[in-house]
Amino acid sequence: MKITKQYIAGLIDGEGYIALLPTRGKDTTNATFEPVVKIGMTGKEPLIIFEALKNQYGGLIETKNGLSKGGRIVNTYVLKSKMRVGTLMEDITEYLIVKKDQAILVKEFCDMPYCHPKSPKFDKSIVDRKVVIYEELKRLKRPQSLATTKRENGGNAEVIV
User: Fold this and answer.
1) Which residue intervals of 81-123 are DSSP H helices?
2) Domain 5-160 class in CATH
3) Other C-beta atoms within 10 Å of 39: how many?
4) How far is residue 134's CA from residue 19's CA, in Å, rounded to a whole number?
5) Which of 10, 53, 132, 148, by CA, is between 20 and 30 Å from 79?
């Protein structure tokens, strides 16, 4: 079974997570990051989809019992590595709606060369840009604005817009 790029983009927009994870703590002075994409869904049915994703892009599938509110099985597809995440971002960015900005930043990160501080070719501007990308991704994960709506019983409720 092969899954279309549009379907994968929809899964990530609705159920997914695109980020950079710090691999040396949160100290960004000598920062290294790992790109990651995760998609989490409850029930056994997503395993078919996740197996197809694993066949197309690599990665792994985690299954945990009782972690959802209803105590159901939670399946998570996890993809890491610059090459694999970069390929996925290349394939789906044009189809993303909600997480397009995150995908563009992670793709930029994946296209950057590795830059070790002890290397004679070390370029501090690359490290600085990686930190800026990481900070921008953190900012994008926060709700952009909160709106208030009236409930039928007269109280206020916050709605993320």
Assistant:
1) 82-92, 100-111
2) alpha beta
3) 23
4) 8
5) 132
CB 116 within 8 A of CB 23: no
Residue-wise pLDDT tens digits, 110-125: 999 887 777 777 788 8
156-160/146-150 β-pairing: antiparallel
Tokens of 34: 């790992």
Cβ-based neighbours of 51, under 8 Å, separated by 6 or more: 1, 61
Q: Find all residues with CB under 8 Å of 1, minimum gap 6, and list them.
A: 48, 51, 52
* 68-76 mean pLDDT: 77
Distance CA 78, CA 64 (A): 13
pTM above 0.85, yes or no: no
Distance CA 143, CA 161 (A): 8
For the chain, the structural domain boundaries read: 5-160
